[in-house]
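To whoever is covering the structure queue this week,

Two jobs came back overnight. Logging them here so there's a record in the thread.

Job A:
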Amino acid sequence: MPADVDEHAGRAAAGEIKGQRGAASFIPADLADVAPVRSLIDRSVETWGPIAGLVNYAAITRSLDFFDVDPDGWRRLFDVNARGSFFAMQHAARSMRAAGGGSIVNIANIAGKGWAGASNIAYANVISGVHRASDGVVTFRGTDITRMKPHTISR
């Protein structure tokens, strides 16, 4: 069930899934806000039953020098990338635990390593926090975590 603030892209993603004979519906959501994240998980459970898998792929970033990161930009990065991902994992893991397990895949590009010229310190900090937070999910019986860091991610 794709969710995005970009309605056009979200509907296109749902269309691609349906085009491959999958089932999908799009939900417009700003993942910086926890309520739509929970609603997304709840709607998925209501529509298709217990959650077997979650892919955290939503993220924002922009290249900034260390000295150019401002509090508003930092907050937005944190809210979308960390809060949204964390609460999606938490809420989905509850459904997975009740069903006996599942799988979570967190995808963040390699810029999360914080390499000079590839990203900014704010993005690297937030993404490493998401990956550290996911360590706690493996304590739920039968829930696997996979972390993917492709070199480049584009729409």
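Job B:
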Amino acid sequence: MARRTSYPGWSMLFGFAISLCLCLYFTFAAVQGDYGLFRRAEILGDTAKLRVELAGLEAEVARMENLTKRMSDEYLDLDLLDQQARDILGYIGNNDVVIR
């Protein structure tokens, strides 16, 4: 009689081990990978910080647009013009007192 060298139980165990390893690998990749759950949470946190920064920058742009409009020919704010001349050119007014 010929002796069998392969046992059907071993191939089943080997198939189960390979399947288990693949499941564990894909589960790990789904949690820790580049597109995993932890990366998603990190991206959502970054998105929240960037939205706050965007709101601040939009407020800054609105403030600068307001100052630009007030310095335009159509709408000239004399107080702002006087303040800018003093700050940039170093002018002082007639009623100002300089203390050294």
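Note for Job B: Residues 29 and 36 are 6 Å apart (CA to CA).

Please reply-all if you pick these up so we don't duplicate work.
Q.
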